[in-house]
Write a structure and sequence with these properties.
heterodimer, A: 504 residues, alpha+beta, PH-domain like, 3 domains, B: 173 residues, four-stranded antiparallel β-sheet, 4 helices, 46% helix, 24% strand
């Protein structure tokens, strides 16, 4: 604890490399079309010029990085209680952050920074979304020291009366930094990559095959003679084999892409506990970090499919309260691939207890009939009407009909089987999905409004639907036991109206 | 701590939201519904007439026949639904929450507890203002589907409701 932060400090000397790589990355991103053209015309280019220009480029970026390093200083102004960052080669920028406005100080490490052995320090303030102060390259000890100095001042300003607790807080933070609360292993990410996003992959496959098939048909129309002449030469078995081979290739590629995407996005996923909130950071090339405040959490969604269940992993999605609907999509936080024990630990932290299932409600069988009518009945009707009255050519594709009926029928059946609502004293859990089984968990106190809906011919059958509106989205359950549902609505309303429990 | 009790609640004895008697909308609002209905129907009659005036080649005798058969059925349909819809709409203000019921084929009821209300607004449409009516809009922190709009309330009463709700919200804070 001897570093004098009141004098302007430079970053680590090795940090020039970090700046160099970041600049390189930025230029590569800006000029990728030119790079692409050069890559394609590789053989036509004079190699000596290429090498010379590359060297020149690296030298220029190197000089820029060095100048950036020279001109970047940070200092603590203890008189004015400010943290000051000076940067810029030609255009100078001076950022002054008042110490008592600092909310979070995060220490991260991206892939490049890990290679070089330095850390990144980000200062978050209240009032704006973007990071206001960022030091790109700093040694670990210095980062920890600076962090404690930045936060020390802040806690002094708040808690002059009870110094003991603030001291404890700082101590806690440091120990928390040392051992993260949760770390998702590389193996888990591999598992997630292999097992998720089937829907998208299947859609891609279908799109691909339909275009191929169409082209094939066109080809046949244009050149009938050609087809007759040469068609016989092609061995039927060979065609079948190559198609099968092709399908395997495609599945393989989709899996590889999924795995790489997952690893790039979520590499080194760590969750740390800080002052009662959670700090998540992840990413291979650029490390992203977000803060999660348990009291802002509205809905927790867990999702797992058959393979993920066998492998013992599941995905968590956390929806927070948002001010605008536009932000709704971006504010959901994904935690891919955690084990059941880790899931329980996270839920425990967010809810102070582990959600139990309690009373189970099933939807009426009419729900299955209705969804089959919507997804199979109506399209089939449209298909037949178009075929008989408009264009009988569509009947050539009739072989698709049984495949469609079986596929969609199975999906609807499993959706119906998995659709459940669990209610107990502290939680409401809605389970849904055909392949990926989702469980949406909310606490009754997070409910903003309740709406119910009942068709008039369902009155005698005692079935109806409810929607629970929260600040993080709606939860709907259709065609359940209406008397039971109404009883619970009355109970939830009673609980909301008699307590001052805050939903945020 | 001495006053703290934690008795089991008998959920069957709780006040029932489904047993609430709803107040129907003001009778003047029926005029608004009828005027809106007339406007819609006139537009739907005039639009094809205008079209046939400017582009007569598009309108064959067969199309007129189809229009003549479909439009009256559609008009009756819309009229029945507007009138029934007006009759089915109702609202209720309880001690701790506000309820609104609507829907012809399905009965929809939405309940918003006062301590979840974010803000309240009054809205006056052109016809409604002429008749001295207003619409009370109640917003929560949830998505727009969880907001509530009660049309056809007399201006004075609507203002009273707004005051009542503001008072309830203030008390919560």
């Amino acid at each position: 604890m001897s570093t004098d932060f009141s004098l302007p400090q430079r970053q680590s000397v090795v940090g020039i490399w970090v700046l160099f790589f970041y600049s390189l990355q930025r230029y590569a991103r800006a000029f990728w079309p030119i790079i692409l053209i050069y890559a394609f015309r590789f053989n036509q280019i004079n190699k000596i010029y290429l090498v010379l220009s590359l060297i020149a480029l690296f030298v220029v970026i190197g000089i820029i990085s060095y100048l950036k390093y020279l001109n970047f200083t940070f200092a603590l102004d203890s008189e004015n209680k400010e943290f000051i960052i000076n940067e810029g080669i030609i255009n100078k920028t001076k950022t002054a952050i008042q110490l008592n406005k600092i909310q979070q100080v995060n220490i991260n490490q991206s892939f490049i920074q890990r290679l070089i052995g330095v850390y990144e320090l980000n200062v978050d303030t209240a009032g704006s979304n973007k990071k206001e102060g960022a030091i790109k390259a700093i040694s670990h000890e210095l980062a920890l020291e600076l962090k404690s100095r930045l936060l020390e001042n802040e806690s002094k300003a708040i808690g002059d009366e009870n110094d003991t607790t603030t001291f404890k807080e700082i101590a806690n933070e440091q120990s928390d930094f040392a051992e993260p609360f949760l770390r998702i292993s590389f193996l888990s990410l591999l598992k997630v990559g292999v097992t998720s996003n089937y829907g998208r992959s299947i859609a891609l496959l279908l799109l691909f095959f339909s275009t191929i098939y169409e082209n094939f048909l066109k080809f046949g129309d244009d050149d009938n003679i050609y087809k007759e002449k040469f068609g016989n030469y092609i061995d039927q078995n060979l065609v079948l084999q190559s198609i099968l081979f092709f399908i395997f290739w495609l599945i393989f590629i989709v899996l590889i892409v999924n795995v790489f995407r997952t690893i790039f996005k979520y590499f080194n996923y760590t969750i740390k506990q800080q002052k009662g909130s959670l700090l998540l950071s992840y990413g291979l090339i650029s490390t992203k970090s977000t803060i999660l405040k348990p009291e802002k959490v509205q809905i927790v969604v867990t999702s797992r499919n058959f393979f993920q269940k066998k492998m013992g992993i599941l995905e968590l999605k956390i929806k927070q309260a948002t001010s605008g609907e536009k932000e709704q999509k971006g504010s959901a936080i994904d935690i891919p691939g955690c084990s059941t024990a880790e899931e329980e630990a996270i839920l425990n932290l967010l809810f102070q207890k582990i959600p139990a299932k309690g009373l189970m409600l099933k939807p009426n069988w009419r729900k299955l009939i209705f969804s089959i009518f919507l997804t199979i009945g109506l399209p089939l009707f449209a298909f037949i009407v178009i075929g008989t009255y408009l264009d009988s050519a569509v009947f050539e594709y009739f072989f698709i009909v049984p495949i469609y009926i079986v596929y969609i029928g199975l999906i609807q059946y499993f959706k119906y089987i998995n659709n459940r609502l669990f209610i107990n004293n502290n939680f409401i859990i809605k389970q849904s999905g055909a392949w990926d089984i989702r469980k949406e968990i909310i606490e009754p106190s997070k409910i903003q409004a309740v709406s119910t809906s009942q068709l008039f011919w369902h009155k005698k059958l005692n079935i109806g639907s409810i929607t629970l509106h929260t600040a993080g989205g709606d939860i709907a359950f259709q065609l359940g036991d209406y008397i039971v549902l109404k009883q619970y609505i009355n109970k939830w309303l009673y609980e909301i109206e008699t307590s001052d429990s805050n939903w945020m | 701590m001495e006053n703290f009790t934690n008795e089991t609640i008998d959920t069957t004895q709780l006040p029932k939201f489904e047993a609430v008697i709803f107040t129907s909308l003001h009778s003047k609002y029926f005029t608004v519904v009828i005027i809106n209905l007339i406007i819609i129907i006139t537009v739907m009659i005039i639009a094809p007439l205008m079209f046939s005036f400017f582009r007569p080649e598009l309108f064959s005798g067969r199309l007129w026949l189809i229009l003549g058969a479909v439009l009256p059925v559609l008009f009756i349909w819309i009229a029945v639904f507007s009138i029934l819809g007006y009759k089915r709409k109702g609202f209720a203000f309880r001690e701790h929450d506000v309820l609104y019921r609507s829907g012809v084929i399905a009965t929809n009821t939405i309940v918003i507890p006062y301590n979840r209300v974010q803000h309240v607004a009054l809205h006056e449409g052109l016809i409604s203002r002429y008749l001295g009516l207003a619409k009370v809009e109640i917003f929560t922190a949830g998505a727009s589907s969880s907001d509530l709009q009660i049309p056809g309330i007399e201006k004075e009463q609507a203002e009273n409701i707004e005051q009542l709700l503001m008072g309830k919200i203030q008390k919560q804070l």
